[in-house]
Each structure stands twice: as structure tokens, then as C-alpha cells.
Design goal:
alpha+beta
């Protein structure tokens, strides 16, 4: 049977899943409120912020689903488990955000040409309510923001959406005090740009993992040098370090050793060094020319 690569850790703690659930419910309620407020008031900035909040709700729903799926044990059909789903969801989520930003930009251009009337009396209270929802949800996820790509994406969504709500509020104040109708589409464009900026890191990091790039916190040359520094090791090649999910680095390498060296001892020392120094728990090391004398850790 395939090895269980710490499947429970991938799904995050029970506390992080509860935080995701609360954030999802808060955003779902205020999404409905913001859509109604945007349609009634005619504010594109409010609808743009509602579009971002919709992506938040979708992202949180996916994060909850992924948190459940990635905890499943590896199977014969999926020997690495389901950690890659976390990365895929982050990548797709980022692309959806970019599509929303593009739609906001096109709609804003039309409104620059023909600014509609905006009911500030409806727009401002709803924008304030949306800001409270975003801040509350972000606060719930604050302690878990450094987790996997799902939790990181969810937190960044909410933080950016809070900034978007501030933009909608400022647009409402500009229209109310000065009658600047152009402020509303301008605020929506800024919100769209903010969405792209906040999601760029998620798309970049998830794509890097999907392309099996070396994890950013690990220097391949440092690992190579550390392996060559081991007693009896005089060569190292076919060194690869990648990750299935955002928190599971794996390593494979071929080692060349001195004649007469105790191969089993070399493999054990190498695996222990990699685990302790680089925090890579899953390694596959093989002595060159001895395809059956390898060590899986």
C-alpha cells in the first residue's frame, strides 16, 4: 500500500477549518447584502467589491472542500495522496480573480464614458457593512494566514476585499460631497488592480509547484554541497527537489561514494542530514551503480 505522507497535516488543523467555515458564512451573508445594495444604488464600485466578495466566498468554499479532500490517505491510484489539489485550487482561484478584474475594467470604461447616477444613501451603508465583514473574516483567519496555499489565498482575498470596501466608501464620499461621478468607476478600476496584485503571488507560487520547481525556501546548490560534504561521498547528480503540496518537499538524488564505503551507512547519514538541516522528510537516495541499494525515508 502507498505510504501516508502525513495526510492529516495537509488538511490543516481543526481550528483552521473552523476559521474557514466562519469566514465563509460571514462573507456569504454580506455578499448577498452587497449585491442588493449595488443594484439598488447603481454603484459599480459596490458591485465590483461584491464581485471580489463572490470570489472570496467561492475561494473559501473551495478551501473548505480541499481541506477535507487533502486529508484523505494515499491510495494505489494516487500514491502521493491528494496534496496537489490544494495547489490546483489556488491556481484556478487566481485565474478566476484575473477574469473578474478584466470584467470590472471593461465595465468601468463604459461608465467613464457615461457615468450613471449613484444612490449614495444606499451605497455608503452597504460599503461600510462589507468592510466590517471583510475585516471580521480576515481577523478570523489571521492566525492561520501562514498555512498552505488555500489558507494563504483565503486570507489575501479577504484583506484585498477589505481594501476594496474602503475604495467603495471613498467613492461614495466623493460623490456625496463633490458630485464626482467619475470617482465610482475609478474606485472600481483600483479595486480590480488590487485584486490582480493580491492574487499574483498565489498564481506564481501554485504554478511553480505545478511545474515541480524547487521550493523557494530551499537552495538546491546548498543541498548539493551538503551532500558532497558527507564522508565517503565524492559525487552527487540527478538531484531533484519538488513538492506535491505547498508544505511537502521531496528529494531524490544519486550519490557516488568511495570504494569500500559502507553504502547503507552513507545513505542513512545523508537522509538524516537532509531531514535535520533542510526539513525534507521524504527522500529517495541511491548509490550510483547500485540500483537496488537505496533508501526511502
Amino acid at each position: 500500500m502507498p505510504q501516508d505522507y502525513e495526510h492529516a497535516a495537509r488538511g490543516g488543523s481543526a481550528a483552521s477549518r473552523r476559521a474557514l467555515t466562519w469566514a465563509f458564512l460571514i462573507n456569504l451573508v454580506f455578499l448577498i447584502l452587497e449585491v442588493i445594495g449595488g443594484l439598488v444604488s447603481g454603484s459599480l464600485a459596490l458591485l465590483a467589491d461584491a464581485g471580489h466578495m463572490l470570489s472570496d466566498v467561492a475561494a473559501l468554499a473551495v478551501a473548505l472542500w480541499v481541506a477535507h479532500i487533502v486529508r484523505k490517505r494515499a491510495t494505489s491510484a494516487h500514491s502521493y495522496g491528494y496534496g496537489r489539489i490544494e495547489v490546483l485550487s489556488g491556481f484556478v482561484n487566481g485565474l478566476v480573480l484575473w477574469a473578474i478584474s478584466l470584467f470590472i475594467g471593461v465595465e468601468a470604461y463604459q461608465r467613464f464614458l457615461d457615468p450613471p447616477e449613484v444612490d449614495v444613501a444606499v451605497m455608503l451603508p452597504v460599503a461600510f457593512a462589507g468592510l466590517l465583514a471583510n475585516v471580521g473574516s480576515a481577523w478570523v483567519l489571521w492566525a492561520h494566514r501562514g498555512g498552505d496555499l488555500n489558507l494563504r489565498a483565503a486570507f489575501l482575498h479577504l484583506a484585498a476585499d477589505a481594501a476594496g470596501s474602503i475604495g467603495a466608501i471613498l467613492a461614495g464620499i466623493g460623490i456625496w460631497l463633490r458630485g464626482w461621478a467619475w470617482v465610482d468607476p475609478l474606485a472600481s478600476v483600483l479595486i480590480g488592480v488590487l485584486i490582480v496584485i493580491s492574487s499574483w503571488g498565489i498564481v506564481r507560487d501554485s504554478l511553480h509547484i505545478l511545474l515541480e520547481g524547487t521550493p523557494s525556501h530551499i537552495n538546491l546548490d546548498d543541498v548539493h554541497g551538503a551532500l558532497l560534504s558527507l564522508p565517503d561521498v565524492h559525487g552527487c547528480h540527478d538531484l531533484h527537489i519538488w513538492a506535491v503540496g505547498s508544505r511537502e518537499p521531496m528529494l531524490t538524488a544519486h550519490l557516488e561514494v568511495e570504494a569500500g564505503a559502507q553504502r547503507t551507512r552513507v545513505l542513512q547519514e545523508a537522509a538524516a542530514m537532509i531531514r535535520e538541516r533542510f526539513r525534507i522528510k521524504h527522500t529517495t537516495l541511491q548509490i550510483e551503480g547500485e540500483p537496488c541499494d537505496d533508501l526511502h525515508d
